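User: Structure please.
Assistant: Input sequence and predicted structure:
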Amino acid sequence: MRGNAQLPARLGAILGDPAERVGITIDGAYAQEWDDAEGHISIVRGHCRVQQGSTILEAQKMVIWRSTQSVGKGKRDRLTIYLEDDVRIEEPGSTVNDSPMIVTLNTRAGIKVGLRLPWFYYVARTIQLDQAFVVQRGVPGLSFAINDGGRLKRVLVSTSDAAQLVDELRRGSSGPSSAAA
């Protein structure tokens, strides 16, 4: 069996870096984001964490520049990440604590961005803005599809009334309720 390093250069280029097949998650307590001519910029503060597989980047402050390239039938996201204050970078077999640092990650598997409010909810969305999540640990969730022609296609929210809302939706979709009769 031959490893990726022994494959012909052309086949290796088609397969890409194995790390690119793993998605990236970005979390923090506060984020400010905008687009510019080069791509997307995020300033993340407070308990910042970026993870791609077993690689974990942590800091109190991060600036993330994202650019997207078309690659064949898909796309590749490239993140250039500036880390500052309490920087910790963990990879299999090594840990680095140095500040400031700049790291570059690439993925073809997508990016999820979240905002952690430990006392409240976990709020996140996919980078394509097609899914949103507002969830709290231990609280039932209600997932629903949106079909209004916009980008958002699915939402998952935590609510202690999830079972009651499902019952109301079922009654509403099967015709008038008995109270209206």
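Confidence is low (pLDDT under 50) at residues 1-15, 175-181.
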